[in-house]
């Protein structure tokens, strides 16, 4: 599982919280490489170094966990997974104990049950808050354990008042230490998985608490708002900044024209909030639900995803042209994608000298906001000050993005609210709707048509694949299917942390009309080898950036897709909780299946996109009008914390 | 007369010189057959520990001397370092030969910074005398020792927490297995031994395993240093054979008439007068050397309060049973002092203590309830239904 | 050319990192040394240290906040640590505590307004047979009584005069 950087050397977590260094043989059949564990009287043969927890999972024996998480390195701190190992006086934590010899394990003896019950009672004795007034009601691991162990009174008491203040300083992530059980998943996520390093444990003993550098407000430190910590928090200690009250108020206000754009990743995952298994998209049922909730229009973010491809693809072509033909010095290559606001803030903090490499194109969400309050408003005679734009995103960083001061090119706040998958699921429940059972309905015109290219933005490698489909066809004149079966560009797909691909342009065709005013011909690309890369999760982004700084292989790339979240947007900080590699894989599969089912699968073939260039962005991609509405600039933040 | 008679009669470097002429397995065998067990409190067989480390394959190995003496009532390592630092460094050096390590680290607790000039001087002298560095005493043995200062954390006495501190992390004990002998400092095989253990090892190499075994008991061979304090006429460091009874010890230190003796510090056992015939040894009441004598006027709940305050302050805080459990036990003591603890709740706290003893991640949480449980067991009349005086 | 305090500090931290090795194992020795020279560890220093060792600033903060001797609060010129564990407690540490608080006019956990003295608790210092024990910075005092408290404080005040100017110079480069 190369998704987790903790598997590799140089893990950032302290050794007290790392996985074992017992070497694991690659195949269970390697001679001497297996061992038999006896769990509750049943034997299971496992590779040496397997933990008791993993061995138990293989034979369907359930051992409860709290600090353990499939994406993260081992901690072994909550102690709820303790089991009896024959011959040992103390209980052992199943998640952290590597089996290297045949052992006998008992998972539910009296001592174990008492220990687990005590641990739950101890956590509850410091856990301030009531379940019915908490956003994680019915989806909280502490609550589930309390139920599983039949907790019906507070053996060691329950706090009457909160001990900590709540940190509301961030647009995206809210921290409430009163509910924290110190499992440290958030710390392992931020330091080890994402390598951003915003939060850690401070203090000692019962004075331990999770905090930022010098306890500064989250909004003042290097938090990139990716929300991966929220996704992995077992309780309500971390949550996203929830605007549903304001969204309802806008819907209830008859003077407001409330427009929502929905992105592919929430659509692929929202079913999980309604009890469905991961990977069942409810795109068209969702349109019905949204209309029934009272949204005036439902648009498909894929429309602006396609628009982003045209703009960003053109920008790349122009950079290449200036560098290769014009021989202009200082053209920033490789070009980095800029649709992931978590990634953008990461670069602004940690590699601000590479801001010129970021594409100036806005994210699809922000392009949409600008387009709605100008083109759409004009076309339909609506006063833009009465339009409220809501974006359904899998992302917590989008809440920060829509509040960036420069995001007002329409003359108004382009996107008013970023709404996460979880928050919308809540709104739909409040409206008494059972989403999976609703009939399907279409998106609204004029932004209802999408292509498969737009859909795949949600998975890591998707933006790259969409861009390549368009660039290949516009430059070579060939159909992508000639080079890649079914136009599926497999080398950029999948969950490897960093992917790399080279593509030699076999031939060139005529320059399409839409770009004719920018380049005279494609001859300068004939035979050229396009080098591209894809990275997801900021730990992998860091690897690529360090390589670029050192003048390595990636500095020779032309175009790199960066996503802030592991897995890409389907793993975003606003997606249903819990998350795991299997869940993300199922969501990605759904997205690629949706793409395959589309008839039109290339951004430049989207008729609505071609219309908007004809009617509105008349000076073409990267032209003056596009620049004003669809492109942006960035902020040099640096990593120093005042 | 020196409080450390046996150490004082050792011939300097005789143990090291012997070890230099022995093969590595033979050195380990000498220690193993002596039956020497760790002198810091845990009592792990030293020969076994060295054997594991010697057998491990790695490019680098480490000998670490645990001088983070922090157990309440323990001060014998301080005296050993003040009077016999050479013996400790000798022990480290021959341990280095035994396991195949070239580097030794003395982890000295921050509170002992005033010992630093003395220890630095001893190390400098040893280097001049070719007892440290390359080609020790003309052989091909290479060994160097450096000192790392602790920063005020009792938990760093736990060997994996100590290694975490060396690596620049919070002093939070690690998951075990794997153990330091396989995966220690910087992931390399490391032995972490108490000051007294290493000094004793040097003695054993010099005089032989049989000499060591002549004292003590079958499972607790040799002699032990004890730091005695509290309500006794002659507090200080004493050398006794393992197996001495509490009553015999009290006679030696002028502590007759004691109400109770806390053996093993705050994480040890509270032995009431009715049990003073018990032996101090790994077979019966183990200890790292701390002996605190409690006179008849002492309030056992006050003592317990002091210990629990200590643990609540010093717990590293990573695991639930210790972090919150110790707090609950402390609150229970405050309730008892205020005369407001029901028997039912006291029983809950005792059950909690039992859970902590088996579910905590490291020795601190596993032993912090011991004092609580033994006071509740042996001094129940004294602690129930009190008139509140002060909390 | 005037070198600012920050530049000087950054230079010293870099030199320390080079001396101890630019990896995480150098963290605690470096922090100890900076505290020894400057008596406190501010946000700037922690970030420079983090940068030199290739770790995040919050990780430095996390480690520093764990250890009793590394806390980053500004502390007095003389940090007095009184042992509160059982043997010193039994030998009368409470009376010493009260006298210290009386003589300095502060409670434990505080620093005197003139920045000279801080009062902190410590746990067992290994002087159990000669208690009550206290440390003034690294210097140990045993068998402390309320009367001796006054002498100890006076000795500190006398020695302060000698070192008064040490930390306040501006270095000319």
Strand content of chain A: 5-15%
Query: Judging by the overall fold, what is the CATH architecture of the largest domain in chain B?
Result: 3-Layer(aba) Sandwich
Q: Work out the radius of gyration of chain A.
A: 26 Å
Instruction: Give me the count of strands of chain B.
Output: 9
Number of domains of chain B: 3
Count every helix of chain A, treating DSSP H or I runs of 4 or more residues as helices: 19
Unreliable segments of 5+ consecutive residues of chain A: 1-11
Largest sheet of chain A: 5 strands, mixed
Give the termini separation of chain A.
38 Å
Mean pLDDT of chain A: 93
Distance between the termini of chain B: 44 Å
* Order of H and E elements of chain B: HHHHEHEHEHEHHEEHEEEHHHHH
Helical fraction of chain B: 40-55%
Structural class category of chain A: alpha/beta
Which structural category fits the helices and strands of chain B?
alpha/beta
Give the CATH H-level superfamily of the largest domain in chain B.
NADH-ubiquinone oxidoreductase 51kDa subunit
Catalogue the unreliable spans of chain B.
Answer: none
> How much helicity do the residues of chain A have?
25-40%
Q: Specify the biggest β-sheet of chain B.
A: 5 strands, mixed
| CATH class division of the largest domain in chain B | Alpha Beta
What does this 3D model show about the protein?
- The complex is a heterotrimer of chains A (about 650), B (about 400) and C (about 170).
- Chain A is of the alpha/beta class.
- Chain A is about 30% helix and about 15% strand.
- Chain A starts with about 35 loop residues before the first strand and ends in a 12-residue tail after the last helix.
- By secondary structure, chain B is an alpha/beta fold.
- Chain B has 3 domains: about 5-215, Rossmann fold (3-Layer(aba) Sandwich); about 225-295, Ubiquitin-like (UB roll); about 300-385, de novo design (two linked rop proteins) (Up-down Bundle), CATH 1.20.1440.
- Chain B is built from 15 helices and 9 strands.
- Chain B has helices at about 5-10, 15-20, 25-35, 45-55, 75-100, 115-130, 160-165, 195-205, 210-215, 245-255, 300-315, 320-335, 345-360, 365-380, 380-385, and strands at about 60-65, 105-110, 145-150, 190-195, 225-230, 235-240, 260-265, 270, 290-295.
- Chain B has a 5-stranded mixed sheet.
- Chain B is globular, with a radius of gyration of 21 Å.
- The model of chain B has no long low-confidence stretch (mean pLDDT about 95).
- Chain C has 2 domains: about 5-65; about 80-165, 3-Layer(aba) Sandwich (Glutaredoxin).
- Chain C has helices at about 5-20, 25-40, 45-55, 55-65, 85-90, 95-105, 145-165; strands at about 80-85, 115-120, 135, 140.
- Chain C has a 4-stranded mixed sheet with strand order 2-1-3-4, covered by helices on one side.
- In chain C, a hairpin with a 2-residue loop joins β3 (about 135) and β4.
- The interface between B and C is large, with 50 and 38 residues.
